[in-house]
Amino acid sequence: MNEFGKVAVLFGGTSAEREVSLNSGSRVLAALLGQGIDAHAYDPAEQPLDALKGYDRAFIALHGRHGEDGTIQGALEVMHIPYTGSGVLASALAMDKFRTKLMWQAAGLPIPEFALLTAESDFNDIEEELGLPLFVKPAREGSSIGVTKVKTPGALKAAYEEAARHDPLVIAEKGVMGGEYTVGILGDEVLPIIKIEPATEWYDYEAKYNRDDTRYLCPCGLPEAREMVIRKQALEAFRILGGRGWGRVDFLMDEAGNHYFLEVNTAPGMTDHSLVPMGARVAGMEYPALVRRVLELATND
C-alpha cells in the first residue's frame, strides 16, 4: 500500500531558475520512484493546472517565481492537494528579501544593514552610508541572479540598473565578509550548519551550480555552543516568516564572529551540489530518506 497515494513532483516552471529546478526535480522524482512511491513529473511550464487533478500530494521542487513565491501554493490549496514546504504567506514573504528583512528587523534578529534602491536614490550617499563592498540584489530572485558585488566608488548605479532588469524592487546590502553559511530546517529539526567557501570572489551562480572547486565544510568549524545558538535562532527566523515543513536559512559572519541572517529559501535545491541534502547526510540521513521525510511533512493546513 502506498501511504502517499499519487504524488506529483513539480519542477521546471517559468522562472529564471528553471534549469536548477529541472535538476532538483529529476533527482527527487528518481528518489521517490526508487522507494516504490507512485510519483509523476509535472512541469507547470508545459502542463495546465488541471493536469494535477487526481493527485493526492505534491512535492514542490520549483525554484523562484511562480514556484516558490506562494502562487503555486495557493493553486494547490484551492485544489485541496497537500504540498511540501511553506504555505502561501511564508512563501511570498521569504521570496521577498526586502520584506523578510523588515520582519526580522522588527523581531530583533541580526541582519546586515541595507537600503531600498530606486532610480531616484542618491547612490553616492548610500555607498557612503553602507560602505564598500556592498551587494546589490533584485529582492525577488534566487540563485544569485542579477546580484552584483560593488567594490569601487561610483559603481552602485550600474549595479542597481542590472538588478532592476530582473525586478523593480532592488536592495543594497552592506558586505559582511567573515564567511558564508547555511542551515537546513526539516520539520522541527535544525540540520548541522554548513560553511561555504567559494573559489570565486563570492558565492555566485557559477559557484553554486557550475564549479567543482566550491568547498562546503560540515562540521562548519564554529564552536559547538555557538553553532547551537545560531541553529536555534535560525529556526526562529524561519518560523517568524511562517515557515513550515522544510527550508534553508542563509547567514553571514563578520570578522568579529557576529552572525547576520540573510534570507530563507522555502523550496531549497535538491541537486548534487545542494546544501540541505549535504546537511542531512551529516545528520545521518541519506538523500532518499530526506526526500521521503519532506514528502511526509506535506500539508495544506
Which structural traits does this protein have?
301 residues, alpha+beta, Rossmann fold, Dna Ligase, domain 1, 3 domains, six-stranded antiparallel beta sheet, four-stranded antiparallel beta sheet, 21% strand, globular
Structure description:
With 301 residues, the chain is an alpha+beta fold. The chain folds into three domains: 80 residues, 3-Layer(aba) Sandwich (Rossmann fold); 137 residues, 2-Layer Sandwich (D-amino Acid Aminotransferase, Chain A, domain 1), CATH 3.30.470.20; 61 residues, ATP-grasp fold, A domain (Dna Ligase, domain 1), CATH 3.30.1490.20. The chain has ten helices and 13 strands. Strands 8, 9, 10, 11, 12 and 13 form a six-stranded antiparallel β-sheet that branches. The chain has a four-stranded antiparallel β-sheet with strand order 4-7-5-6. A three-stranded parallel β-sheet has the order 2-1-3, covered by helices on one side. The radius of gyration is 19 Å and the shape is globular. The mean pLDDT is 94.
